[in-house]
Design a protein that fits this description.
This protein is an alpha/beta fold. The chain is built from 10 helices and 5 strands. It has helices spanning 2-10, 23-32, 37-53, 86-93, 123-128, 131-156, 178-194, 209-218, 224-227, 239-245; strands spanning 99-102, 111-115, 162-167, 199-205, 230-232.
Length: 272
């Protein structure tokens, strides 16, 4: 009933196209806003404006290997969204394997590997890039994930989300500037509004002892919805924790460093 009501209210919006913005498109907004039609309507309308502004409904980017943009594989600069040089923005902020979005199995969801230790989040790097530069990297990965998850959901009939695997190897809290962290937070809030219900789970691995300690202290008092999405694991040593990953990633696709059998680094995986 709620989704029909939302469709009816959107019919008056000149940007709404029922063929493109169908019930599956609208469902994510209702789920994100706990079936509250008024809030879902505002979010959907804002998203339609956003998608129109950046011509997102006109471009299928699933063929891209997102992190390969930094190497110039898709041409120099690679203008996208708010920047005319996404290649520079990506290479400066997220070199090598800092951010790797993959679709190892087209019948399952998106798997993102984030190497926090390689992510440039210091003050010097922050000053080299504009807010639009940084936002465009977030937009590219969010749109790519959205398109793949939409495809997998439609082809399998299973409502599909993504998983993020965050490697804390070589991470130092001193490499993060407060300015960059604050900027990222604002951008991520915006992306969550525009791209609702994309994330199923977030797993942290190779975490230093202080993260384990902090997690042990705060986990009991955190909301259930946060606990259900975030976990700190050691899949190579703990079989039970490895099983959690197998819900998203097969043994053959799981990197050897995480207890799987795949010896190829995710950043070197071929596109589907």
């Amino acid at each position: 009933a709620n989704i029909q009501q939302l469709k009816l209210l959107l019919q008056k919006d000149p940007l709404y196209e029922p063929e493109k913005h169908d019930e599956l498109f609208l469902l994510r907004f209702l789920l994100s806003h706990k079936q509250k039609v008024k809030r879902a309507l505002k979010a959907a309308k804002d998203t339609l404006v956003f998608r129109k502004e950046y011509h997102l409904d006109e471009r299928d980017i699933r063929h891209l290997i997102p992190h390969k943009i930094q190497s110039g594989e898709y041409g120099e600069k690679f203008p996208f969204a708010k920047t005319d040089n996404l290649q520079h923005a990506w290479k400066t902020r997220s070199p090598e394997d800092a951010i790797v979005f993959t679709i190892p199995d087209p019948h399952r969801g998106v798997v993102a590997f984030l190497n926090i230790g390689n992510l440039k989040n210091d003050s010097k790097t922050c000053k080299q890039l504009s807010v639009d530069d940084v936002a465009s990297v977030f937009m590219l990965t969010s749109e790519w994930a959205h398109q793949w998850l939409d495809y997998v959901t439609r082809t399998t009939g299973r409502f599909t989300k993504s998983v993020r695997l965050i490697d804390f190897s070589n991470f130092s809290i001193f490499q993060n500037s407060r300015e960059a962290t604050k900027r990222d937070g604002k951008i991520m809030d915006m992306m969550e509004d525009i791209y609702p219900q994309l994330l199923q789970a977030l797993f942290v691995y190779n975490a230093p002892s202080w993260i384990h300690s902090a997690w042990a202290i705060f986990r009991p008092i955190m909301p259930k919805r946060i606990i259900e999405k975030i976990d700190i694991i050691d899949p190579k040593k703990n079989q039970k924790e490895k099983q959690k990953l197998l819900a998203f990633l097969s043994e053959e696709n799981m990197p050897e460093s995480m207890g799987g059998t795949n010896t190829i680094r995710p950043c070197d995986w071929a596109a589907q």
